[in-house]
Amino acid sequence: MTDAATLAPVGHNNPPADPYEAMTTHIDDLYIEASNWADGAKIETEAQAAVVERLIDDFKQAIEDCEAARDVEKKPHADEVKRIQERWYPLIGDTQRVTGKAIRAKKALLAVKSVWGREQDALRAAEARRLRDEAAAQAAEAAKAARNAVGDLAATEEAEDLIRAAQTTLRAATQAEKPAVKGMRDNWVICGFQDVPAADGKVTQGRVALLRHYFTMNPDALVEACLKLAEADVRAGKRTIPGLVIENQRRAV
Questions:
Q1: CA–CA separation, 136 and 75 (whole Å)
Q2: Within 10 Å of residue 200's Cβ, how many Cβ atoms?
Q3: Residue 75 lies inside a defined structural domain of this protein
Q4: Dist CA 176 CA 170 (whole Å)
Q5: Straight-line distance from the first to the last Cα atom of the chain, in angstroms, rounded to the nearest whole number
Q6: For the chain, which end, N or C, has fewer CB atoms within 10 Å of the first or last residue's CB respectively?
Q7: Could you read off the pLDDT of 88-110 as tens digits, one per residue?
Q8: Which domain holds residue 127?
Q9: Model-level pTM greater than 0.85?
């Protein structure tokens, strides 16, 4: 009697190939066939159209099969990455769903430091303004003394002392303007719109002034932004937009 191992040796039924290699071969074959049609030639008969339609369906199916095989191959790795991510979330997660303990504490401390740093910046700015005003007053006094010191050596020396004092005060004002708190950085933000007065006494709304400014400085970028809005409107069903030509150019899917 012949045993099962003799009748069916291991590997006799050609176990399935690697999905990637199998799909590579399949798509290469389809690609060669497609190249015969996508070479600038036009469809001339219903039969030719049917062949092209079949090829499109074959490629759609091949893409779906590739995506399915890829997802199967990725899943064990994706599951492990997700497990590791979620393990660390309580400590360093920084998403809309989870904020880790370390991230929470750091953000809270940075907020406290930011308030203090801005207060220090305001104090230094105020001191810088005071010193600049003082320097301006000293410079004015020095100029007056210099005008009155013509022919008087002692008065000229006194005027020069006043000039040096004004320069020293001005340097102190410049020094006071430098940031003093370490670990702070500039963070310029747009806080709102500001109306702009015109020469004729009229006022231009901030939004309008902003659009006029960028239409003058960078019209292409402004038009591109408007076109993106228009494209969204067209996708939503709008068919008439001032200044634009909108046509229905049907295409294969």
A1: 72
A2: 5
A3: yes
A4: 10
A5: 60
A6: N
A7: 999 999 998 999 999 999 999 99
A8: 101-176
A9: no
